[in-house]
């Protein structure tokens, strides 16, 4: 298992970095739509869709929705202050606040949504759609003056989340004694949580020193800390839905890693929350 995880990671990481920096905006948006469609396919299982055909339709509808939203942007598509983008990012902030209460009060909170397939589908929409717009909004950051500025921001948030996840795993294995959310994800500990925060703080400092991120250090730290906290929440939220669905992995598309949602669960929260703070709260655009 570990060998296949490492091999897959060594293949995927260079591909992700190449896509961030070398794909044109249209190609990047299409690639992100495909990823979101695969995520929607897997969410169908969490929402209680029993047949393959139902899940295929969910993925297709998700792709058509995102494409329609993309095509309804004004001709100057790199103006991010349009209702499709802003509305999705603010919705993400609201949804993840709700998700925090659902996770903290689980399993009692499951009584509110366990038997409601439409509600679980809505949760999926609020997870996948803002993730798409967060990715697109960050990639288009200052695109006119620097084609790679947004790619650096996306690389930052991805490395931040991956680093926090790795730091949490290592600190949890070495020092973990106190469970973080035993009813949702028994393997996570408070020691791992703080280890992940420490790791993300180091990564944020390194990027601030070495990468061309033109933003005030205080703004960067605030956005990085909140995004890291959101990434933990994204992971716990998917774990909660998987526990209710009675499955270990959301899928098996990525050898050794499970499904698409298993790999991007933290990013589905961190990316739109980070984009909302960076672009709408602090108005760094």
UniProtKB/TrEMBL annotation:
The chain crosses the membrane at residues 28-44, 56-76, 88-107, 119-138, 150-171, 192-208, 214-233, 264-282. Signal peptide: none annotated. It is a multi-pass membrane protein. It is found in: Cell membrane. It catalyses: a 1,2-diacyl-sn-glycero-3-phosphate + CTP + H(+) = a CDP-1,2-diacyl-sn-glycerol + diphosphate. The keyword Cell membrane applies. Its EC number is 2.7.7.41. Its main location: membrane. It comes from the Bacteria. Keywords: Cell membrane, Lipid biosynthesis, Lipid metabolism, Membrane, Nucleotidyltransferase, Phospholipid biosynthesis, Phospholipid metabolism, Transferase, Transmembrane, Transmembrane helix. The keyword Iron does not apply. GO terms for molecular function: phosphatidate cytidylyltransferase activity. This is Phosphatidate cytidylyltransferase. It comes from Pantoea eucrina.
